[in-house]
Amino acid sequence: MAAPVSSVGKPSAERSPFNNTSFQKKTRSKLISIPGTRPSVQNGQLLVSTGVTSLDYLLGGGLAVGTVLLIEEDRYDSYSRMILKYFLAEGVVCRHELYVAAAQDNPDDILQELPAPILDDVAMHKPAEQPRLSCEPPDGLDAMKIAWRYQNLPKVQTALASSSRFGHYYDVSKTMEPEIRQAAKCHRFYLPEHPTQSSPPHSTMLESYSALLKSLQEVINREGFDVAAPMSNSRNILRIGLHSLGSALWGDDLCCHDNPKNGRALTTFLYGLRALLRSSLSVAVVTLPSHLIQDRALMGSITRLCDNAIALESFKGSERETNPLYKDYHGLIHVRQVPHLNCLASKLPDHKDLAFKLKRKQFSIERLHLPPDLSDTVSRVSRGELAGATTVASACGSGSSGNKHLDF
Amino acid sequence: MLPELLQGVDTGGLLVIQDSASYSGRHLLQSFINAALNREEAVHVLGFEVSEEELKDGLRGSPVQRLHFHNAYTDPLGWTDHPAFTVHQFCLGELTRLVKQTSHSKPATLVIDSLSWILRHVSTPDVCRTLQQLRKGGAVRSIIGLLHADMHQRGTVGSVCHSATSVITVEPAMRGDEAVAKITKRSKSGKVIQDEEIFRIKDDLTVVVQSKFSKGAKKTDSEEQETDPTANLTFNLRLSDTEREAKQKLALPFVFSKEKKTALLHSGPGSGRIHYEPDANDDYDQEDPDDDLDV
């Protein structure tokens, strides 16, 4: 059981300096209130937003704390990387802690490419900004030509704390400003920086995976994300992003051979990761280049070891690119698994054909439907044809001209 | 797009030429070597599959002073006592040392002929890791490798190409001396460009592109198309420059001077008082509007 923890003596959410009201909701529930989370309406689990609101909806409201989301990468790793960046950016905005691990690119590069949030109340993260008082010299009077009477009112007026909102929108064309990013604490794991020690011969896990798991465990214990740790007033969530696990750069030959030698290394790692997550306040997103894995049975067991699993299939480079049905979208999204936490079965999404489109301000996932058939063969009787039909006087229409369609 | 790739692979890039038994990619590889030599770059070739004479024979007419051939053709597995270069020397330390031996001002281009040979004897994760380390280290500017796609499993080819920045797959075309090149190029920003061209290699190892079928460059982050609402109307909604100036100059109502604005904004506590003395007109009697009743 991951998240629900009883809290005696109601901890208050971190008071943001811009919380203008002194009103605080009395939480009688047993869930700890952490900014950026909310309880699920289905089963009461503590949920965290993935950063993409349509993906949250697909996964049943959000990612439950203590679970793993597996994203099967598309061919050129463009959209899966984008979702990972959304996930980390959401963590920065909600002021969670981040942990990024990668073998190919430096985690700092990934962190620098995070998309910028589109909200005016996120600007509240800059603590130095005070509401403009009327004693300040009216420099900016020229700024407002018509509404100048509102000049001196404070710029932002929101009653609640900024991070109480669940799910934010991001502008992909801009990167997040360094001040906002540096406000969040990030832990990094870059595989080439860790010297590989030889693993004991009886272990089924590779050195890279065991080093990663050890590092994760150390961070969780040190920063106090462990559920068993002594209760302090402020708890936070650790967001873990693991990029391209299982690729050859992690030392795994899962993607290289049809019968990999250490085929169980990744599955052992995922088992250990899930055990670690269940006993701590963290969420993990793992991307995997599944198009390189030839063994489908192994892929199935990897999917089953993660709680949520989605697969992205981009149209780029495939023959579907020119299909007129798909012209509005960038790819298809397949939901392989939804979690069933503390219940027997879970609610699968109703629609199985889902397509995604990456727009500048939104990553939208929509149901794929057939467009209306506007071609010429749709029967529409024109005047000329009608006139021609009246001359053909046969009652049953057997003598009618071949190319006139009867429209009922 | 083939000519642009021939101009130079980006720093830190890995170019993989995939060929098959039906069309050999070695001519294209020689074109790349030729182009690099003509650009006055130092080229180091790890030759596993062809001997030095054969390679230099094919590169007739190019400045070969800057070409350094490491002979892995005679004894790649180290069976004799003094092998020149073995396949087990394919690791970061050895290769850096080899490249730095012939020190030049500019970092060198490393050409591997072929990657398939190395993949048969060294495990794929190690090869990928070495290539990645070479790219990140400073000794080598770019790496060009030849890969025989039909010699390996799909996963192996996929793994090597997954970390490559550009992949060129060559296949035979209709005519004998022409070939089709399918190019996939990944830029640092995440954009993926794909192209398909028919090319021919002339005797002096220059590449002539006959025709292109381009699949079109698509951006991975596409912007929303904003339709211009002022287009396609029967009346004119746009402003010319003079009209815009006149609009700016227009004095709006309630636009006060700066002093009046500050006075109004920073009004003191008592400035809004109204002083009123009732006068005779305020004695308005409802029942006697004309005030002429004499009661």
TrEMBL record, chain A:
<dbReference type="GO" id="GO:0005737">
    <property type="term" value="C:cytoplasm"/>
</dbReference>
<dbReference type="Pfam" id="PF05625">
    <property type="entry name" value="PAXNEB"/>
</dbReference>
<protein>
    <recommendedName>
        <fullName>Elongator complex protein 4</fullName>
    </recommendedName>
</protein>
<dbReference type="InterPro" id="IPR027417">
    <property type="entry name" value="P-loop_NTPase"/>
</dbReference>
<dbReference type="GO" id="GO:0002098">
    <property type="term" value="P:tRNA wobble uridine modification"/>
</dbReference>
<keyword id="KW-0539">Nucleus</keyword>
<comment type="function">
    <text>Component of the elongator complex which is required for multiple tRNA modifications, including mcm5U (5-methoxycarbonylmethyl uridine), mcm5s2U (5-methoxycarbonylmethyl-2-thiouridine), and ncm5U (5-carbamoylmethyl uridine). The elongator complex catalyzes the formation of carboxymethyluridine in the wobble base at position 34 in tRNAs.</text>
</comment>
<feature type="region of interest" description="Disordered">
    <location>
        <begin position="1"/>
        <end position="24"/>
    </location>
</feature>
<keyword id="KW-0819">tRNA processing</keyword>
<comment type="pathway">
    <text>tRNA modification; 5-methoxycarbonylmethyl-2-thiouridine-tRNA biosynthesis.</text>
</comment>
<dbReference type="GO" id="GO:0033588">
    <property type="term" value="C:elongator holoenzyme complex"/>
</dbReference>
<dbReference type="InterPro" id="IPR008728">
    <property type="entry name" value="Elongator_complex_protein_4"/>
</dbReference>
<dbReference type="GO" id="GO:0008023">
    <property type="term" value="C:transcription elongation factor complex"/>
</dbReference>
<keyword id="KW-0963">Cytoplasm</keyword>
<comment type="similarity">
    <text>Belongs to the ELP4 family.</text>
</comment>
UniProtKB/TrEMBL annotation, chain B:
<dbReference type="Pfam" id="PF10483">
    <property type="entry name" value="Elong_Iki1"/>
</dbReference>
<dbReference type="GO" id="GO:0000049">
    <property type="term" value="F:tRNA binding"/>
</dbReference>
<protein>
    <recommendedName>
        <fullName>Elongator complex protein 5</fullName>
    </recommendedName>
</protein>
<keyword id="KW-0963">Cytoplasm</keyword>
<feature type="compositionally biased region" description="Acidic residues">
    <location>
        <begin position="279"/>
        <end position="295"/>
    </location>
</feature>
<comment type="similarity">
    <text>Belongs to the ELP5 family.</text>
</comment>
<keyword id="KW-0539">Nucleus</keyword>
<dbReference type="InterPro" id="IPR027417">
    <property type="entry name" value="P-loop_NTPase"/>
</dbReference>
<dbReference type="GO" id="GO:0005634">
    <property type="term" value="C:nucleus"/>
</dbReference>
<dbReference type="GO" id="GO:0005829">
    <property type="term" value="C:cytosol"/>
</dbReference>
<keyword id="KW-0819">tRNA processing</keyword>
<dbReference type="GO" id="GO:0033588">
    <property type="term" value="C:elongator holoenzyme complex"/>
</dbReference>
<dbReference type="InterPro" id="IPR019519">
    <property type="entry name" value="Elp5"/>
</dbReference>
<dbReference type="GO" id="GO:0002098">
    <property type="term" value="P:tRNA wobble uridine modification"/>
</dbReference>
<feature type="region of interest" description="Disordered">
    <location>
        <begin position="265"/>
        <end position="295"/>
    </location>
</feature>
<comment type="pathway">
    <text>tRNA modification; 5-methoxycarbonylmethyl-2-thiouridine-tRNA biosynthesis.</text>
</comment>
